[in-house]
Amino acid sequence: MEVERVQAIVSSSLAKDNIPLEFVRPEDEQPAITTFHGLIPDIPVIDFNHPDQDHIIHLIANASRDWGIFQVVNHGIPFHLIQKLQQVGKEFFDLPQEEKEVYAKPPGALTLEGYGSKIGKDVNGKKNWADHLFHKIWPASCINHQFWPKNPPSYRPVNEEYAQEVRKVVDKLFKWLSMGLGLEADVLKQGVGGEEIEYLMKINYYPPCPRPDLTLGVTSHTDLSAMTVLVPNEVPGLQVFKDGHWIDAKYIPGALIIHIGDQIEILSNGKYKAVLHRTTVDKEKTRMSWPVFLEPPGEFVVGPLPQLLDPQIPPKYKPKKFKDYSYCKFHKLPQY
Fold it and tell me: How is domain 27-331 classified at the CATH fold level?
């Protein structure tokens, strides 16, 4: 086994009140110290069934400017399908360790796809209290079924059905985000790759942790994607940085959590904000989440939209191939 998985560490004979030192975050990152517990506003919740489309556009645009994140209800994805997606993901992580390792990311591979425990580089040498599975679910031309679990047998059909349903939601989101900037409906989608946008599914698995006050499932970051569509389970953990505070996201059964990512922030020249967020873990329960990252093809160049620039509003970002942006982000290198 290339690395020891967090799930395996939990099931080993750990002292009940202790975790390995490499998981203990610095004090300025520890959730017990840094989580805000005062009166806070809730992350915006947007109802796609509202009869006035202009009202929906207004809410989405405001949430994307002020928060970089919002929750969507009545989005059209059947609740039973979301439940099935969660069930097959849980069944995969319940498999014996050696079965999961069959899908491990190959050592040295450039792809993110596969089962694993760590992405990116931590300057402090610290680890995240999480395991994960990555695989692309759309378009068909970029899918590699090598990384799709064969067990449970329903894993593939459920993920294929979910891919079709989430694409419908994504098209609405891109349309309304564009219109919220005063642009034609297709501008933002085309600005990050159009029909070639890649849908990357990730299952995050955060096992119970003896010291959730000291560690994080995922440290603070913005998503390098254009946008992220996330389904959580019922165990709280997502936190958002707003007005100088780390605040907890409220769990809404069946809702989708929409993150504005770096590429939409770049396209909008900073009008929409990529959300800074992190994940805490629970002492008794396993938290899981299913984000789908919407990413441009690697060679696709993303830069501020000309329609949003003028002599008084210069570009805040330089156009860049997505693969180069990703490389710099993962390796903690300057982007420009």
Answer: Jelly Rolls (2.60.120)
